[in-house]
Amino acid sequence: MANILGVGNATLDIIHGVVSYPEEDNEVRAASKVCCSGGNCLNTLTVLKQLGHDCTFIGTLANDMDGTCLQQEIKIQGININHCPIISGKTPTSYILLSKDTGARTIVHYRDLPELSFEDFNHIDLSQFDWLHFEGRNLPEISKMLSFTRTEFPTLPCSIEIEKPRENIESLFSQADVLFFSQHYLTYLGCAHPEDFLNTLQGKFPHRQIDKICPWGDQGTYGMFSSGELFHEPAYVPRQIIDTLGAGDTFNAGYIHACLNKYSFPKRLHFACRIAGEKCGQKGLHSLTNII
Ligand code: FRU
């Protein structure tokens, strides 16, 4: 069991299950409603907690009613949020339609809350952690956090999720031990073949030991080990796709868990694909470890 710190954003997810995605200006009845904690980093910690790790989240939380509900949800899962600054403002929320037809999720996200500063992060004693996971956002603050960690705790492994294109996000790459790239990010770069992207990236940081991972939906995952070896792991397809919300976040948790357990690179990819696939075959992020 490891002690993991996740740095990112927490959201309140309000998920309505609908038979199929509605047309604009229609009124439809939802078959279910779930209100739960969300946000990429927090979702990753939710899965890591179930895999037996001690998890601490740091990110800003708001002092409104949604914030109280969100904090309760996080605490029930046993994730430590004692270091989170609670500030005045509105809790980031996601209104999500989950289509029974396809398992696809459509997210409308609202956020207007200042993000974590380096000063907030700097209050934490990092010596207690075995792994740090960052959402690649909130530059340049995240950049300062990573530089500080690299200087003060050079052997502490850091993973970064690169989900959306953001100004200067490439400046974070060399600071990571593991980089998770989304399909959305690569598509934005105009890259249709993850192998090309990974080869180019390897050429840029030939001397840094970085695992570079590109989950590619139902086409599986492409990964380049720090040594430059390229692997492809097919997607794990459950009997029925029920809910894809947080599948990428689950993948990241699976990969981090596999690293902490010192699995080989192909086995890490395999485990992450398997748990992400299992997640798509069930609702929500809970009880995942029962099937793995
Ligand atoms: C899923 C998710 C949701 C959240 C949204 C934020 O990956 O993290 O939990 O509402 O994305 O963009």
Automatic annotation (TrEMBL):
Instruction: List each copy of the Carbohydrate kinase PfkB domain by range.
Output: 2-286
UniProt key word rRNA-binding: no
Q: What EC designation does it have? A: 2.7.1.3
Q: Which InterPro entries match?
A: Carboh/pur_kinase_PfkB_CS, Ketohexokinase-related, PfkB_dom, Ribokinase-like
The record's top EC class is transferase
Q: Which UniProt keywords apply?
A: Kinase, Transferase
Q: Name one GO molecular function term.
A: ketohexokinase activity
Tell me what this protein is called. Answer: Ketohexokinase
Question: Organism, per UniProt?
Answer: Candidatus Nitrosacidococcus tergens
Lineage, opening ranks: Bacteria, Pseudomonadati, Pseudomonadota, Gammaproteobacteria, Chromatiales
The UniProt gene name for this protein comes to khk
